[in-house]
Amino acid sequence: MDVHKNSYICAIYGKTGEILGETKISSDIKLIEKFINNAKKKINEDVDVLAGYEAGCLGYSLYWQLKEKGIACNILAPTTMQRSAKNKVIKNDRRDAQMIATNLANGSYKAVYVPHDHDVEIKEYIRMMNDFKDESKKVKQHINAFVLRLGYRYGGKSRWIPAHIKWLRGLELNSMYKEILDEYLSQLEELTEKIERFQHKLEELSQKDSYREKIGELRCFKGIDTTAAMTLHVEVSDFNRFPTAPAFASFCGLTPGEDSSGEKNKRLSITKQGNSLVRTTLVECAQVLVRGTIGKKGKKVKSKQLGQDVKVIDYTDKAVLRLQKKYHQMILRGVNKNIAVTAIARELACFVWGVETGHIA
């Protein structure tokens, strides 16, 4: 099925290798069921049917609807599907449906992992919170640009702390400019309060029986707070589906690409395939992890480790020490800071996999 918001293009690929039927229908699960039953009548024998569609705007909703009807379904990861050269030259919905059916028949794809319902709920909650964080960043950018256009420059080291907000509110502006700045600051204050409320709710959710143990263990890492731990845990859902730590790092899109031929070996930038939110979260955690003195644990890290298993604490402390040393060695060699942080994020992903799967020996 090539699925869109208001319509589905369906194609059935038979055992003998030909397209047995095609149709364009509205986005109604009953019409899919009807199309499958009609195709079975044409074949005139009892066969198993496997439905599939590319991961996209519909998320898991169609998968769950088909499952309720007793129809087996896979969600295909777009980057793993085989595509003919002709499909790249002439592309339309009909050809896409045929291509998806062919991949289903040949098994030339990887299915997207479908998480549990409660994981999806929290995943959507975290994404909603991130949307508000993005809005907050935009408002801050607007304020910075507005104040700069008026010729004012903040002399402090850190922005958006109480001292910076006090400085903004104390600027002597004419009535119109003052009104504009007050509106911006009011919007920022409202967004900040909402984000704090979301984070408090996430703290409560992390204390549920299904999350408490693993979230507590992940928080033992320097740089991983409750929000980051919950994001990693629910976005991946089942870490055991990755046989090795490098396989998980590859899923995150943190492994370098390659363009080699013959004796020529060329490494590219990271693939950026897989889950972008997990990748971004790991990079942000790595940025915090490499700060400060190597091997020194702050009060915040110690408080997060209270009550945790000694083996987990020992494992995470050794991991942080190794990553901090590696980062500083790379910087001393002249490696670009962003490249170094990405390398640390890739290795941090491996250590996260170790905690989630129990490989901490």
Explain this structure to me?
By secondary structure, the protein is mainly alpha-helical. It has 3 domains: 2-106, no CATH class; 117-205; 211-357, no CATH class. 57% of the residues lie in helices and 9% in strands. The chain has 14 helices and 7 strands. It has helices spanning 29-43, 61-68, 85-89, 93-106, 117-149, 162-169, 175-205, 209-218, 226-236, 245-251, 276-289, 299-305, 310-332, 337-357, and strands at 2-3, 7-13, 19-26, 50-54, 72-76, 256-258, 267-270. The strands form 3 sheets. It has a 3-stranded antiparallel beta sheet. The chain has a two-stranded parallel sheet with strand order 4-5. Strands 6-7 form a two-stranded antiparallel sheet. α11 crosses α14 (337-357). The radius of gyration is 25 Å and the shape is globular.
The shape is globular
How many domains make up the 3D coordinates?
3
Computed over alpha carbons, the radius of gyration is 25 Å
Number of helices: 14
Average pLDDT level: 92
The main pleated sheet reads as:
3 strands, antiparallel
Number of DSSP E strands: 7
Helix/strand/pairing category:
mainly alpha
Query: How much strand content do the residues show?
Result: 5-15%
**Any low-confidence stretches, pLDDT <50, length ≥5?**
none
In helices, the fraction of residues equals 55-70%
| Order of secondary-structure elements | EEEHEHEHHHHHHHHEEHHHH
Main sheet: strand order: 1-2-3
Measured distance between first and last alpha carbons: 45 Å
